[in-house]
Amino acid sequence: MDYCPHTPDDTAQMQSVVAIASIDELFADIPQKFRLKSVLDIPAALSEQETIATMSSIAGKNKLPQFTLTGAGAYHHFIPAVVGHIIGRAEFYTAYTPYQAEISQGILQAIYEYQTMIAHLTGTEIANASMYDGASAMAEAAVLCAKMSTRTKIIVARSVHPEYRQVVNTYSWANGYTVVEIPYSSSGQIDSNALQNKLDDQVAAVLVQSPNFFGVIEDIAPLVDTAHQKGALLVAGFTDGTSLGILQPAGASGADFVVGEGQSFGNPLNYGGPYLGIFAAREKFMRRIPGRLVGATVDKNGQRGFVLTLQTREQHIRREKATSNICSNEALCALAAGVYLAALGKNLRKLAQLNIYKTQYLKNKLLQLKGWKEIFFAPVYNEFVLCCPDARLVNKKLQSVGIIGGYELNKDYPELENTLLFCATEMLSKDDIDRVVAILK
Amino acid sequence: MELIFEISKPGRSASAVAASDVPAVNIEDAIGKKYLRTDLDLPEVAEVDLVRHYTNLSRRNFGVDLGFYPLGSCTMKYNPKVNENVAALPGFTGLHPYADDKSAQGNLQLMYEMQKYLSNIFGMAEFTLQPAAGAHGELTGMMMIKKYFEKKGEKRPAILIPDTAHGTNPASGALCGFEIVTLRSNSEGGVDIDHLKSLMTEKVAGLMLTNPNTLGLFERNIEQVVQIVHGKGGLLYGDGANANAFLSKARPGDLGFDVIQLNLHKTFSTPHGGGGPGSGPVGVSAKLVDYLPIPRIIKTGDGYNWSDKFPDTIGRMRSFYGNFNVIVKAYTYIRSLGAEGLKRATEMAVLNANYIKEKLKPYFDLPYDRVCMHECVFSGKRQVAENGVHTTDIAKKLIDYGYHPPTIYFPLIVPEAIMIEPTETESKETLDAFCEAMIAIAREAKENPDGVKNAPLTTPVSRLDEVLAARKPDVCWKKS
Known about the structure:
The structure holds 2 protein chains of 2 kinds.
Chain A (H helix, E strand, L loop, with lengths): L7 H11 L29 H13 L6 E2 L12 H7 L2 H4 L11 H18 L3 E2 L6 H15 L4 E5 L4 H14 L2 E5 L9 H7 L4 E7 L10 H10 L3 E5 L19 E5 L15 E5 L12 E5 L5 E5 L6 H4 L12 H14 L2 H21 L5 E2 L8 E5 L3 H10 L2 E2 L2 E2 L10 E5 L6 H11 L1
Parallel strand pairs in A: 1-13, 3-4, 3-5, 5-6, 6-7
Antiparallel strand pairs in A: 2-8, 7-8, 9-10, 11-12, 12-15, 14-15
Chain B lengths: L26 H5 L15 H12 L22 H7 L2 H4 L11 H18 L3 E3 L5 H19 L5 E5 L5 H8 L3 E5 L9 H7 L4 E7 L11 H10 L3 E5 L12 H4 L3 E3 L2 H4 L14 E3 L11 E5 L2 E5 L16 H37 L15 E4 L1 H7 L3 H10 L6 E2 L8 E4 L7 H20 L1 H5 L12 H6 L9
């Protein structure tokens, strides 16, 4: 199956316009010795029916769980039907980046609305059109902070998602920056004394996450003060975006940048991608931030319209002097997020409440099991850490009945043995939770 | 059109949150008052109004399904529907990224095979599927080059980039600390070999080359270019933005490229989504395999597993494994077309571009008049000189004819550039009609230039004031 509409007659006529006797002549610039003589070693073409059968068989080799108790950066939430219908409109999904504003008002306005919702949710003044994912958004924020100063150190809390820290490390290494990690305290929050001690006049940015990887809510305002006192900027991440429906956002506590994963807003788990990176900031950074920005303006007749704006920040104008190399966003995922947030509206708070109810129920039930205990005492949103007699055995038991258990923290925190990170969203029913506890009894 | 906030009315909602089947808890007790937000100002709309709002927005947007979209360098080919259907299978969409490897064998197999197919199609030793977009792939590739020299203990602070390159190339190089040195093009639009010889020293990490370049021209002296770069111990980076031009015809690995980054959303038919999600896999030669991002897929007798036990890796470029669902669509495309289909796609893409080039040559300046690959680049300078009509005017007028304009003002070395990439999925009739429109615009530029300069007239908004947008930025709506 190919998608070329050319009949043999078309091809012949076109060849005569181009004045070639054979298609091969079109490739004459490729030196003879480099022309591929063999046929590519990939499976034979399939009809549409065969394609569906083949792909269904591959999808069928995955075992979908009955439900999952792991979040850890990707969250299973209910997606209202409207989201799929809107992003399934070909006018949106078969378009490119909106370079020609007059025929791209749809996606431009939708992104402007998304930016507005995100700025409000994060407690900042501005948000961009989205980044690749939460981790790269955090890494780009860190690099930006260093570039705006002459400083070369990045401080990151160990309670930040391990994969986000890895990405920050990669980007920092490439730019010659040093990364310093700050331990967590017995509350599960960043150890603020250790932060004080490590902050010096070479630190460009302090990276934290709230809720952090342990599910624990950080006290952002004092961290902002601590960072600012030493001339560093504070970058606050978050884990599950739905927490923004109920928690005081980091922007409202004075964070300079709020970055995080937007997948929770209407995007399926998709085995890790595509997701969208939320990137929000104080207004004063508007001309420095990476990524696409949509702005409102007027047309010749004074009518409101939208364009990609402040493009002098960007690579196609500034080349090596650009603030980043990013030249796209995750537009369709951001559209899904916008539709999701508009569909939820103020019910986002109710949804967040429901997540808290389920989480508290799950936590209390698990704590009734023999030998299980809490190790952090600060408040949590919809994830929490418990220590148990044998974490691996717990997950094995759950897995054998098709349940994804908790995230085993000792993979990333060797000191946290037999410690599991659990997540409960609205997708988990009371019966599910009771079953888990029955299995583990 | 009104904003979603302007149609909001307190008390309305397009969703109902399920009732709780577990006991409610006092939120202030559970969380603490100081951690709770006091405001939540999201739109309040009924479902029908929500759907109409976004549906009406979609009607103000142009996609490939609506018409011809010859946006040069973006490869706006048709996005097959079957790809969307299979990517929506619950087996692909429903899995958590931390599902254990045993439960994810289908996904792992698909990604592993995708890496193998891409390695074969491009003649590379290995591929990573982790980068989320082309520019992200560029950054990944440049980081591997940096790591390679770091491990060898060589200090090579600079990288060469031709003046025809996409802006992302210098930006990606700069984002991993390289000094950017610009390499001139020769009169044929290719690499200026003498300039390359003079710039390529032991302080230079290598060359970032797009081939075919952004003029749509294949680098005839590629063998010499590779010899010069490798001769000084440098590496050759290939920007695969234009990979649609050579599938089954030539392989970058055979040409001597050490790195190539792809754009699955261009070459392998996945939809662009209004600006993403894309996917930017990176292929490497044997020299660079050790530096690939982690985690990588390992195949054993038991099946497939993720592994991060690669001590020389550059590390991680993003969370999880890549834009998996986009990869599913590109994999489906490769399986549907097979080797013959990919070859035909390239052949028809190149034929289409040359056909347009020949038909429009009498009407627009063609700065590099030779056989082109998948795209052709005209200059609108004749129209500027004779009629005061600029390329942007021609582009806007095309909108009134029902087309998405080509890429304009790029590459930078062509004044008033008009870069046309038709792709293989367009019929002769579509190309003929488009050429007739272009010719009519060239005529109108002479006879009634104001008619061109006032375009577009058929769109919901006319030309927008970009200066105002940048001078007084309004990027978030505020209640007045």
